[in-house]
Amino acid sequence: MRTDPVGRFLAALGPEQREAVGAKPRQEQERLAAAWEQELEADDELDTLDELSPPAAEAEAARRILHSGTD
Predict the structure, then answer these.
(1) What are the boundaries of the region Disordered (predicted)?
(2) pLDDT of res. 69
(3) CA 46 to mean position of chain CA atoms
(4) 54-67 and 26-42 are packed helices; what angle lies between their axes, rounded to 10 degrees?
(5) Cβ distance 62 to 34 under 8 Å?
(6) Alpha carbon distances (Å) from 21 to 7, 14, 32, 47, 63
(7) Which residues of 41-63 are buried (b: 16+ CB within 10 A; e: fewer)?
(8) Measured distance CA(50)–CA(70) in Å, rounded
(9) How far apart are CA 25 and CA 33, in angstroms?
């Protein structure tokens, strides 16, 4: 299992999104990964989903970060 936040964030993305985020500067990738981790920690709905499927919760949080206008 990856422990690097950027690596975990990239792994939670779909192939096209992973490629787009991977092309961004490392500092931007780190910023997005930090926002993703905050989303995972802060959202109670994701806690419930995480109990059922951790990868699904991570993917949903990643989708939210990319669609929230923070990229």
Answers:
(1) 1-30
(2) 64
(3) 12
(4) 120
(5) no
(6) 11, 10, 9, 25, 12
(7) eebeebeebbeeeeeebbbbbbb
(8) 23
(9) 12
What is the rounded CA–CA span in Å between residue 25 and residue 19?
12
Show the tokens assigned to 41.
């920690």
| Burial degree of 26 (CB within 10 A; 0-12, 13-18, 19+) | exposed
Residue with tokens 């192939």: 15
Q: Give me the amino acid identity at 65.
A: I
pLDDT means per 10 residues, the chain with 71 residues, are 84 94 96 93 79 87 84 44
Q: Is 9 exposed, middle or buried (0-12, 13-18, 19+ CB in 10 A)?
A: buried
**With 0-12 CB in 10 A as exposed, 13-18 as middle and 19+ as buried, what is 40?**
buried
